[in-house]
Amino acid sequence: MHLCHHSLCCFVPPYMAESLQDSEDPAVRQIALASLGNEYRTARRLLSTQPLSVSLMGQIAGKERYVYDMSGASDPLPGKLLRREGDRPADDEAANEAYDYSGDVYDFYKDVFDRDSLDDAGLPLRSSIHAGDTFGGPMSNAFFNGQQMAYGDGDGSLFTRFTQALDVVGHELTHGVVSFTSNLDYFGESGALNESFADVMGSLILQWKYSQTVEQADWYIGKDVLGPGASIQGVRTLTGEKAYINDPHFGTDPQPKHYQDRYTGSRDRGGVHINSGIPNHAFYLAAMTIGGYAWEKTGKIWYITLKSGLSATATFEEAATATIAIAEQVYGNESEEQNAVRSAWQQVGVI
Ligand SMILES: [Zn+2]
C-alpha cells in the first residue's frame, strides 16, 4: 500500500492523495500518482542514507540553517546549496521562506522551551526546496527524512509551494524533535501520537509567531499550502469539526475526534494521520479550558511529556496519564491545569 517509510514523515497524508486518485480530472489523478509514487521511491532511497549521527560531527550550538535547491529533481538530496546562515536573501522566494520559517521554528523551541534545535545541541536545519516527484513534476508534499526537510512546489492548483506554510515547516521539524526525544514508533497509536505532536507544535508555532490566544487561533493545519483550486479550509483541524466535508477533490476529512471512532485498519501505518485527530482534539480541549496563549501552559505540559514522559511505544492512554502527571508536577495536584488536561482526555474517550 501507499505507506510512508518509518523515517519519512510526509505532510499530506496518503488518504488525501488516494482521494485524488478517484478524480475525473486526469491532471488531478496525476498529482495523486506522483505523490504516492514519490513516497515509494524516496522511502527506498532513504534506506541507504547515512545515520543521523554523521551530521552531528563538528556541530556547534545555535541557529544554523542551510537551504538547497533540487531544481525539480527528486534525487539525490540535498541538492545545490543556495543560502547559508547569515547569507543575504536568495533570489528565490521558496528559499527565503524555508530559511525564515525554519528560523521561526528554531526561535520558537529556543524561546518557549529553551531547546537548541531538534537535538537540543544545535543540529543544523537543512531544507531542500523545489523537490520533484518521480514523474518529473513538482512534488505536492513536504517531508522530513530523519536528516533534513524537503519541500515540493505543489501543482499550483490544489496545492501551492509547501515552504509557504509555517505550520507545515513546524510540523515537519517537530518530527525531528520527536526523533530526539521519545522517538515514538511511527505505527499505530504511538505513530498517531508522533503525528499529533507534530500538528500540535506546528499549530503552536503559528500561534506564537502571530501572538494569537486560544480564541484567536483558527486551529487549522496546512491552510497555507492549499492552492486556488482547493476549496477546503485546511488539511486538518484540531477543533471538533471536520476540516472538509464532501469536497469534490478530497472527499470528507476522515479524522476521528473520539476514541470510539478510531480507525483500526492497517492503512496509513495503522492510521497515523487519521487517529492523530484524537490526541489533537484532546490538546485543543485542554488549551481552550486553560486559555491564554496555548504554548505557555498547555504547550509546556505537552512538550515536557514529549521530552521525558513517553516510551517509544506509548499508547493514547499512556500519553493521557503522562500529561496529567506532568500537569500535576508543574501546576499542582487538582490544579485548574491538571483538571483541564484530565477532562480533555475524558472527553475524547481515551480515559
Ligand atoms: Zn507528519
How helical, in percent, are the residues?
40-55%
Strand-residue fraction?
5-15%
CATH architecture term of the largest domain: Roll
Heteromolecules bound: zinc ion
**Strand element count:** 8
Low-confidence stretches: 1-7, 40-55
* Class from helix and strand fractions: alpha/beta
* Main sheet specs: 6 strands, mixed
Description:
The protein is 41% helix and 9% strand. It has helices spanning 14-21, 26-46, 93-113, 166-180, 188-209, 267-271, 277-290, 298-308, 316-331, 336-347, and strands at residues 9-10, 65-69, 80-84, 125-131, 142-144, 149-152, 220-221, 236-237. The strands form 2 sheets. The protein has a 6-stranded mixed sheet with strand order 1-5-6-4-2-3, with helices on one face. A hairpin with a 4-residue loop joins strand 5 (142-144) and strand 6 (149-152). The protein is globular, with a radius of gyration of 19 Å. The protein starts with 8 loop residues before the first strand and ends with a helix. Residues 1-7 and 40-55 have low confidence and may be disordered. Bound molecules: zinc ion. The site of zinc ion has 6 residues, from helix 4 and helix 5. Residues 9, 11, 171, 175, 195, 198 line the site of zinc ion.
